[in-house]
Amino acid sequence: MTEKQPVHVIGGGLAGSEAAWQLAKYNVPVVLHEMRPIVKTAAHETDGLAELVCSNSFRSDDHQANAVGVLHEEMRQCSSLIMKHGDLSRVPAGTALAVDRKSFSLGVETALENHPLIQIKREEVKPTDMRDWDNVIIASGPLTSPALTSEIQDITGAESLAFFDAIAPVIYKDTIDLNKAWFQSRYNKGTESDGDYINCPLNKAEYDDFIQALLHSETTAFKDWEKDTPYFEGCMPVEEIARRGPETLRFGPMKPVGLSNPHNNERPYAVVQLRQDNTLGTLFNMVGFQTKAKHANQIELFRSIPGLEKAKFARLGGLHRNTFINSPRLLDTKLRLKNDTRLRFAGQITGVEGYIESAAMGLLAGYFSASDYLNVEFFSPPRTTALGSLIAYITQEASSESFQPMNVNFGLFPSLNETKIVKGKPKQLKGRERKLALSQRALKDIRTWYQP
Question: What fold, for 7-160+325-412?
Answer without folding.
Answer: FAD/NAD(P)-binding domain (3.50.50)
